[in-house]
Amino acid sequence: MKVKFKEIRNDKIKECFLDVLKEYEDLHDFSITLYQKRVKSSTMQAQPLISFKDIFRSVKKYRIKLGVYVSSSESLKVEDVPKKVLIGWFAHELGHLVDYLSYSSIGMIKYGLKYISSKSFKMKAEHEADYIAIKNGFKDEIIATKEWVLNHDLVGQKYKNVLNKYYLSIEQVELCNINEPPFQPVME
Q1: What is the CATH number of domain 2-175?
Q2: Is 128 strand, coil or helix?
């Protein structure tokens, strides 16, 4: 595994990330940087690192931005999130990276444009990341993360609304089985 930690000072964060990554064998040959900084619109963001010299090749490097605080909270630090919840979050983000593997750099640019311009595409992408996490054995952790976010008083309603709109519901996750095809998201 080719992992770099940038601005990560908390050992729990590092340990949780490495424990989850071990279960994602498809990602072991790629360079992944976990970078902690203030993130405005979410708690974590999984991104390909695209260089112009390799624009027509597949992406070989990825970054996950990790907020210092949970989205829409100025007092709830990510390092204080329960371990099972943090694992669920990382499982979801690494699910995005697995989803990205089949795209070239140009394909990832198109993917990004569709993600920000199409609500139905965004929903499909977020559902797929959850399905991949479930397939990799993180169903309980995905549920724990959703329950924690939706029930925590210090997590803002805006973030809860985004979770409810674009991500699998707890009930949908509970109904997922590793060996069965996933739900198809209902498109608006």
Answers
A1: 3.40.390
A2: helix
- Asked if residue 24 lies in contact with residue 51, where contact means CB atoms within 8 angstroms, the answer is no
**Using N-to-C axis directions, what is the helix angle for 157-166 and 119-135, rounded to 10°?**
80
0.85 surpassed by pTM:
yes
| pLDDT tens, residue by residue, 42-89 | 899 999 998 877 776 777 899 999 999 998 787 899 999 999 999 999
Q: How far apart are CA 89 and CA 114, in angstroms?
A: 23
53 burial class (0-12, 13-18, 19+ CB within 10 angstroms)?
exposed
DSSP 8-class letter at 186: P
Distances (CA, A) of 88 to 16, 107, 128, 140, 146: 9, 27, 14, 8, 9
Give the C-alpha separation, 97 to 129, whole Å.
8
Q: Which helix (H) or strand (E) holds 17?
A: helix 11-22
Domain ranges of the chain: 2-175
